[in-house]
Design a protein that fits this description.
By secondary structure, this protein is an alpha+beta fold. The protein contains eight helices and four strands, in the order E-H-E-H-E-E-H-H-H-H-H-H. Strands 2-1-3-4 form a four-stranded mixed β-sheet. A hairpin with a 2-residue loop joins strand 3 and strand 4. It is globular and about 45 Å long.
Length: 201
């Protein structure tokens, strides 16, 4: 397997999962500062020049979520996804998609606000709208966790990889102040040895 990777991108998610799985893979570093993602060689792999790309034999996956879903199912003996047909499988899918399609966009809206030039700073009304949406989304996650250590089935799964990685950015942006259980969740999973290996280099 081959993972095209750059730090501080969504490529960290499948790399974290690969490290949790403990399976061999080739890491291909893409230097965004040198615009290597726009070079013809990389565009032949990912036509949009985005990261990550996971290549597994004849299978090429262009999104972090599909990569994580694929990897967890590819190695069922590692128990990073509930078994197909189990009671936990539906909630597992639900949290994976909720993290990527509901949580990530609202966190990224705040991230873009932080990066925006002063002349393009959002209005107070826009910020309040974003914050109300974020609070509602975080409330759903905190209730779903219910004080548990993991999202699904009482054990660590790929759903925790995706959720914790996005919540980590939210925590870095100081967006989790009203959700102490989520801060504890992020800190707990950020200390996993696989995370530290995944974010290096």
């Amino acid at each position: 397997m081959k993972l095209y990777f750059a730090p501080r991108t969504r490529a960290v998610r499948p790399r974290w999962l690969l490290e949790e799985l403990g399976v061999p893979y080739e890491l291909v570093r893409v230097d965004l500062s040198q615009q290597e993602n726009t070079a013809p060689a990389y565009l032949a792999v990912h036509p949009l020049g985005e990261l990550p790309t996971l290549v597994d034999g004849d299978v090429t996956l262009l999104e972090s979520l599909s990569s994580c879903l694929h990897l967890a199912d590819r190695f069922p003996e590692k128990h990073l996804a509930p078994p197909v047909g189990s009671a936990e499988r539906g909630p597992y899918y639900g949290w994976m998609v909720f993290a990527e399609l509901t949580l990530d966009p609202v966190v990224m809206a705040f991230y873009r606000d932080v990066q925006a030039p002063a002349e393009r700073e959002p209005s107070d009304a826009a910020v309040e709208k974003h914050r109300a949406r974020l609070t509602a989304v975080l409330d759903v996650i905190q209730r779903g966790l219910g004080g548990r250590e993991f999202l699904v089935g009482g054990t660590f799964t790929a759903a925790d990889v995706v959720m914790a990685s996005i919540l980590h950015l939210a925590n870095t942006l100081l967006l989790l102040g009203g959700h102490p259980e989520l801060v504890a969740y992020v800190r707990r999973h950020s200390q996993r040895p696989a995370v530290r290996r995944a974010v290096t280099g």
